Automatic annotation (TrEMBL):
It comes from Nonomuraea rhodomycinica. Belongs to the zinc-containing alcohol dehydrogenase family. It comes from the Bacteria. Its EC number is 1.1.1.306. This is S-(Hydroxymethyl)mycothiol dehydrogenase. The keyword Zinc applies. Its cofactor is Zn(2+).
Length: 361
């Protein structure tokens, strides 16, 4: 029979969120119900509340989550009730041209649960990134569940479901950072600091963190930045060149996603270097660059979707590194909160006071 749980709802653009009763149906074919144990508050959730992603209100917020499988529908293999899983928002299809070419992280037909969760009056909810996890139980496609070791606490495991994976993957997967590389990261919130950590994990020799907030730069040093640059006080392009022998960095990661930061990334890289855009622009943003510079500087200009991760490959590996003490995911958790505290966590996020608030259920 359907489950009734409490969840965080965004009813309209710019309106404060509310905690309301949500009806979660039994899982159908290819679906699973997961008892959510913890869910990080990601900036994407705020984008949903502000109408920055779509106007398909009301939204059921939350997507950076981990928990235990409660029930599975017909035909589900690979997971079963009792499994500890991280939820991911790109369940690959295995059949599209990207999957068939061995590049499933680019899957063009990712999927979500077919059924809808609803309010008590039957109003259908739009789950954030196809998940909706600020609630006690959520309905997802079974492919959105990645089984990992239950020894990892849900408060840190869930962070791989979005922001931390995006940053780690931007460095490790998209940027291909390797031993001895020089790396610059523009924007040192959760995603940017995860990129710093990824560069450190890969063995980069020089890791330059760039932000306008000294508090965030201090966080970046804690994750492995060898140098920091406050771009309110110093030109970041000049600073990166000064710190790399006048050449520029091998890999520059833009974790902000604005035209001005992208231009900084473009000119702060070495000839034939790589620019990785992982910060998400808004629809109205445009970029203008001299085409001759694009040609003459060579190298690669890449976008990173979810850190170009393959959850079934990357999540268990990263959790193993965490359990070995080699991946300090705990450092991302600034505070743990309840469902009723999500609105205030958005305000803290806006003031730059937290890396991650994590809802514990």
């Amino acid at each position: 029979m359907p489950y009734e749980v409490r969840g965080v709802i965004a009813r309209g653009e710019g309106r404060e969120v509310s905690v309301e009763n949500v009806v979660v149906p039994d899982p159908g074919p290819g679906e699973a119900v997961v008892a959510v144990q913890a869910c990080g508050v990601c900036h994407t959730d705020l984008h949903y509340r502000e109408g920055g992603i779509s106007d398909d209100f009301p939204f059921l917020l939350g997507h950076e989550a981990a928990g235990v499988v409660e029930a599975v529908g017909e035909g589900v293999t690979g997971i079963e009730p009792g499994d500890f899983v991280i939820l991911n928002w790109r369940a690959v299809c295995g059949q599209c041209r990207a999957c068939l070419r061995g590049r499933p992280w680019y899957c063009f037909a990712t999927h979500n649960a077919g059924q809808k969760m609803t309010l008590e009056d039957g109003t259908e909810l739009s789950p954030a990134l196809g998940i909706g996890a600020f609630l006690g139980k959520t309905l997802v496609a079974a492919g959105q569940c990645t089984k990992v070791s239950p020894e990892a606490p849900a408060t840190v495991a869930g962070l791989l479901g979005c922001g931390v994976m995006a940053g780690l993957g931007a460095a490790l997967n998209t940027g291909g950072v390797t031993r001895g590389d020089s790396v610059a990261v523009i924007g040192c919130g959760g995603v940017g600091d995860a990129a710093v950590l990824g560069a450190q994990l890969a063995g980069a020799s020089t890791i330059i963190a760039i932000d306008v907030d000294d508090r965030k730069l201090a966080w970046a040093r804690d994750f492995g930045a060898t140098h920091t640059v406050n771009s309110r006080e110093n030109d970041p392009v000049d600073a990166v060149r000064d710190l790399t022998g006048g050449f520029g960095a091998d890999v520059v990661i833009d974790a902000v996603g604005r035209p001005e930061t992208y231009r900084q990334a473009f000119y702060a890289r070495d000839l034939a270097g790589t620019v990785v855009l992982v910060g998400v622009p808004t629809p109205e943003m445009t970029l203008e660059l001299p085409l001759l510079d694009v040609f003459g500087r060579g190298g690669s200009l890449k976008s990173s979707w979810y850190g170009d991760c393959l959850p079934s490959r990357d999540f268990p590996m990263l959790i193993d590194l965490y359990l070995q003490g080699r991946l300090p995911l705990d450092k991302f958790v600034t505070e743990t909160i309840g469902l009723d505290d999500v609105e205030e966590s958005f305000a803290k996020m806006g003031r730059g006071e937290v890396l991650r608030s994590v809802v514990v259920l």
